[in-house]
Amino acid sequence: MNRMLIAGRKSHGKTTLVAEMVSHFTNKGLSVATVKHTHHAHELDAPDKDSFCHRQARASMVGIVARHLSAAFWRTPLRDGKCRTIDSRRID
């Protein structure tokens, strides 16, 4: 298993880069998962958010980790394009 870390300042193209990389690797037949760390509380998997963009690029699993929240989304085995939440919990 190979890992890459993408870090940078806000609004410098990290999400675009990751989405393009996910698309590139999945087009080559590889299975790609992403994990997004955030300091902000926001709606999970909303359009134009990082996790949504990663899924649109066909990541097989997308994880989100924040101080008080964690979640993971993955594509169903039937590849129907839908995602299911396998773990979503508030940590108090």
Question: What's a concise summary of this model?
Answer:
By secondary structure, the protein is of the alpha+beta class. The protein has helices at residues 14-27, 50-56; strands at residues 33-37, 61-65, 69-75, 83-90.
Largest β sheet strand count, sense and barrel closure: 4 strands, mixed
Mean pLDDT: 80
Classification by helices and strands: alpha+beta
Given the structure, what is the number of helices? Answer: 2
Tell me the number of strands: 4
Order of helices and strands: HEHEEE
Q: Which strand-content bin applies to the residues?
A: 25-35%
User: Which radius of gyration do the C-alpha atoms yield?
Assistant: 13 Å
- Span from first to last CA? 32 Å
Tell me the domain tally.
1
Helix content: 10-25%
Widest beta sheet: strand line-up: 1-2-3-4
Shape descriptor reads globular
Runs in which pLDDT lies below 50 for 5 or more consecutive residues are none
